[in-house]
Recover the amino acids of this structure.
DNA sequence: CGCGGTTCTTAGCTAAAGTCAATGGATTGA
DNA sequence: TCAATCCATTGACTTTAGCTAAGAACCGCG
C-alpha cells in the first residue's frame, strides 16, 4: 500500500511526508462533531497539556481518585482490573481515542481499575480546569462535548452488546477485522484476557482458525 | 419490612402514602446532579411527554432510525439484538433509568437492536426539539445533561467490565445482589440471555447455588 | 374447570474453555 | 554473550456450557 500525496510541500522533511503531527489527532477527533475555525484550533492546541510516558508507565491505579481525561496522541494504553491477583484487561486505547474519566469526574470515586501504557505513549492530559477554560472561551464547546460523550456512550453500549452476543472465537474474528493493529502491538496473553479467555484458549482458537 | 414514615400528611390518600407519582422519577434523576428550583421542576414536568405502552409493545425495531430518548417512569423495557433468529438480551431498563438514543442522535444510524416492554410501561419520551426547548429556557441544563451522560458512560463502562471479568455464575450472583427485582419481573430465559448463557445453563447454575 | 401454550427443569451427549504441567523460543538485562 | 525470565504453544484432564429432546410446572383463557 503506497500513500497518496499530491504536491507534498517541499519544505517538509522526507520522514514526515504523509504522516501528521500527533496533536492533529485531537483536532481530527473534535472535527468529527463540529467544523473548527483556525482560532479555535489554535486555542485548543495552546490549551492542551501534552505528556510522554514510557512503556509500562502506570497512569492510574486502583483506589486512586482522578478526574483527569486523557486523549491518545500516539501509543497505546491498556485498562485492566485486578481480580484474584490476575490482571483482567477490559480495554485498549490507541491513537485518536479519548480515555474518559468514568466515575471519576462527578462522583469522585476511587478507581476500580488501572491504566498502563502498552508502549511509549504520548497523551493529552485534560483537567476539569482546562475544560472549564475552553468552555469559557467557546461556550458552544459544552454542547460539542456533550454530543461527543453521547457518541462514546453509544460506542460503549455497542461494544458491550458485541461482547455479550458473540462467542470467544467470534470476538477474536471481530478483533481481526476491527482492530488488527492490536495483534502486533499487544502481547497475546493481554489480548486473551481482553477477549475474556485464557492464553491457552486463544492459542487453540488461533490454531482452529488457521486450518480453515 | 415495614416502611418508616414520620408524621405522614393527613391529607394524602392512604394508597398514595409511601409511594410517589411516576413523574417524580425524572425529577429525582436530575436532582442527583443539580438542585432544581420549583420553577425548573414545573417547567420540566410541563415539557415532558408521557406515554403508556402495553406489555410486549415494541418501541424500536432493528433498522429503524430514531433519535428519541426514553426515561422509564414505571415498568420495564428490554433491549435485545436478533442474531441467527435468536433474541439476545443486552439490557433491562427499569424505573428511574434513562434509555439513551445511542448511535441514533448524532449519527442518525439505523438501530441494530430492539426495545420492547417487558410489562405495561409508562415512559417519558424526549425528542431533540424538547431538549432544545429546555436548554433554551435553562442554559445550564446543557452542562447538567453532559454530566449525566458522562455518568451513564461511566456506568456503562463499569457494567461492561463486570460482564467481561466475571463468570456466568458470578454474573448471576451479582444480579441477585444488584437488581433482585428483575428475577420476579422478567422470564428466566430472558435473564439467561442477559447473562450470556442458555436457559438450561441458568437452571443448572441456580441448582448449583441452591445446595450451598 | 380443563385445555394449550409457555416457561422451567432434567437428562444425555458434544463441544469448548479452564486448569495444570511441560517444552521451547524469544527477549531482556547483567 | 549467557543466563534468567517471560511468553506462546501443546498435551492430558476436568469443568462448564451448548444442543437436543422430553417431561413437569405454570400460566392465561375459553
Amino acid at each position: 500500500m503506497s500513500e497518496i500525496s499530491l504536491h507534498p510541500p517541499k519544505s517538509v522533511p522526507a520522514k514526515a511526508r504523509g504522516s501528521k503531527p500527533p496533536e492533529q489527532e485531537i483536532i481530527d477527533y473534535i472535527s468529527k462533531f463540529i467544523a473548527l475555525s483556525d482560532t479555535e484550533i489554535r486555542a485548543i492546541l495552546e490549551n492542551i497539556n501534552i505528556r510522554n510516558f514510557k512503556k509500562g508507565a502506570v497512569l492510574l491505579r486502583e483506589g486512586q481518585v482522578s478526574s483527569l481525561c486523557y486523549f491518545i496522541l500516539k501509543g497505546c494504553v491498556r485498562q485492566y482490573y485486578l481480580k484474584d491477583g490476575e490482571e483482567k484487561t477490559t480495554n485498549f486505547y490507541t491513537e485518536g481515542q479519548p480515555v474518559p474519566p468514568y466515575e471519576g469526574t462527578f462522583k469522585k470515586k476511587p478507581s476500580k481499575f488501572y491504566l498502563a501504557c502498552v508502549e511509549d505513549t504520548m497523551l493529552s492530559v485534560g483537567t476539569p480546569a482546562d475544560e472549564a477554560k475552553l468552555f469559557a472561551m467557546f461556550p458552544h464547546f459544552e454542547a460539542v462535548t456533550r454530543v461527543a460523550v453521547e457518541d462514546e456512550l453509544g460506542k460503549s453500549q455497542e461494544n458491550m452488546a458485541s461482547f455479550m452476543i458473540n462467542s470467544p472465537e467470534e470476538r477474536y474474528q471481530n478483533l481481526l477485522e476491527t482492530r488488527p493493529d492490536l495483534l502486533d502491538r499487544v502481547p497475546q496473553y493481554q489480548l486473551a484476557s481482553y477477549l475474556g479467555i485464557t492464553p491457552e484458549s486463544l492459542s487453540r482458537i488461533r490454531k482452529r482458525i488457521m486450518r480453515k
In short: Residues 167-169, 197-198, 200-201, 204-205 of chain A lie near DNA strand C (CB under 10 Å from a C1'). Chain A touches chain B at residues 33, 81, 83, 88, 90-91, 100, 102-107, 112-113, 142-143, 145-147, 149-154, 156-161, 163-165, 194, 196 (CB under 8 Å). Residues 22 and 73 of chain A are 5 Å apart (CA to CA). Residues 1-17 of chain A have pLDDT under 50 and may be disordered.
